[in-house]
Fold this sequence. Notes:
This protein is mostly helical and 45 residues long. The chain has one domain.
Amino acid sequence: xxxxxxxxxxxxxxxxxxxxxxxxxxxxxxxxxxxxxxxxxxxxx
Length: 45
């Protein structure tokens, strides 16, 4: 997902299946992207 948002220049990404099947939580995704410098809404804080 990081590559899609940075190299692919996407403004958003559809993550429904990732979250639905329990691969990652929304919190995990946001924390990982934030740690890599991607701007995310940090409403869980």
